[in-house]
Amino acid sequence: MRMMAHPKTPVMIVGGGPVGIGLAIDLGLRGIKSVVVERYTEPQQIPKGQNLTQRTMEHFHVWGAEDALRAARTIPREYGIGGLTAYGSLLSGYNYDWLQRELVRPFYFTDNERLPQYATEAMLRRRAAEIEAIELLYGWTCTAVHQDTDGAEVEIADRDGGKRILHADYLVGCDGSRSLVREQAGITQTKSDHDRLMVLLVFRSNGLHELLARYPGKSFYNVLHPALDGYWKFFGRVDLGSTWFFHAPVPADTTRDNFDFKRFLHEAAGAEFDVTLEHVGFWDLRFAIADSYRAGRIFIAGDAAHSHPPYGGYGVNSGLEDAVNLSWKLAARLQGWAEAGLLDSYSAERQPVFASTARDFIEKSILTDRNFLRSYDPARDRADFETAWRERQSGARAEVNAFEPNYEGSPIVWGAPGAVSSAIGNHAYAARAGHHLTPQKLSSGRNVFEELGQGFTLIALGAGDAASHFAKAAADLRVPLKVINDTATNGRERYEARLILVRPDQFVVWAGDDVSSEEPRRLLQRAIGGKMM
């Protein structure tokens, strides 16, 4: 059969899950056309990727999709979306609050959210359909990928035998952990296998809702059990009252037919309750991270770039941050105002941040839980156990504050000498190079996040002629720059800088109090991927 050709598009996206569609939306709002190839015609009804952080919700706000996403929530807002960690079983009497993201709420513009990934994906599909710059090809599968110095070529096929060839300036693989794009681009991975088979159950139960009424406002529950040696039994609400999901390690030879899943659920909860199973699935517990997120004209994002156990709600949030980081850089290059080095900064920033996320948060939590379970046992020494259990509660709060992905070591920000990009940081009001900008109110009453430009933004807080120096440098370099003039009072003094240069993804490039007339050009040149002068 002769393949149908397709006009060349600036960006081709293989994979139309939240990361791929999010990337298309962000590009489309920047005026960049894209084509999205997605094999499924409808979102798959598996409740994963539910926790959306405050930072992720900032993206939905920028995309004009925040209200629609919150309206799609499956758990009433008044109920709450908090978490809980328990020892032994959910009803053992030993528990504490877990993943208290509200502790870092002042450092972000939006509240966090929780809903099944399929609901998020459905809303993103509706938003993408409203943007003229996006072409959506649902029901098509990528079968081959090629590239040369001028662009990339993708072969796709539909279920009826139709075939097409698509051409693009750039290709982004958002096609999951078994990414064909990654494989055919020759991008290697580093893997860490934990040699554990995991089960995912989706089930209905009104009785479990009644049992857990003693924990109001909780939507997800993590059970630590000595027999699992640091791995979790995890319950999550899909709605309020009847639908749940659960994942945990199971013996390596487990199948749908040889294991008593209802009993497994009862043991994890600590009581019997009604169970109607709707889905049983399995996966291997492992970490995998691409050694680079780029190969020539091809990029990867989301699970195609990094995959890990669903511990801590990092997956979809990391993937959407990949999309936002890459989007403005592709747009800048395609619009002609960035240097070639800007695209290399995508991998240079995002790869070490996820490596840190996996190492310093996900794997560390497994090892920390393992050490705790091996060291303390209420049956052996109750007083010793209870002291250690109380100490874990403060550790859970510290983890939320410490997870602050930053690009201090990026080649396109003015971080401290020797700094590295990492998921470890601390939330602060001060404007720091390589860190997310903390929102503050302006004298107008609007939040600075409501005034940031689509390109770069200079926040000038009583800095004299410096703003005009930046404006001239930006005009000379053809870099889009918006200037926000205000005073360093009424909370804005917390930035601890009178001049703050902010990237299109709300990360700080540079912060200081004064510049010479020549310095802004050097600052901007680096921020768009140019060589240091």
Defining key terms:
alpha/beta; nine-stranded mixed beta sheet; eight-stranded mixed beta sheet; 12 helices; 25 strands; globular
Detailed description of the structure:
Helix 1 runs parallel beside helix 4 (117-129). Strand 17 and strand 18 form a beta hairpin. The chain has 533 residues and is an alpha/beta fold. The strands form five sheets. Strands 1, 2, 3, 8, 9, 10, 11, 17 and 18 form a nine-stranded mixed beta sheet that branches. It has an eight-stranded mixed beta sheet with strand order 6-5-13-14-15-12-16-19, sandwiched between helices. Strands 23-22-24-25 form a four-stranded mixed beta sheet, covered by helices on one side. The protein contains twelve helices and 25 strands. The chain has helices at residues 18-29, 54-62, 66-71, 117-129, 180-185, 206-211, 261-269, 315-334, 341-375, 382-402, 466-477, 519-527; strands at residues 4-5, 9-14, 34-38, 51-52, 82-87, 95-98, 113-114, 134-138, 140-148, 151-158, 163-173, 189-204, 218-224, 232-237, 243-250, 276-290, 294-295, 298-300, 306-307, 403-406, 422-424, 456-461, 481-486, 499-502, 508-512. The model has no long low-confidence stretch (mean pLDDT 94).
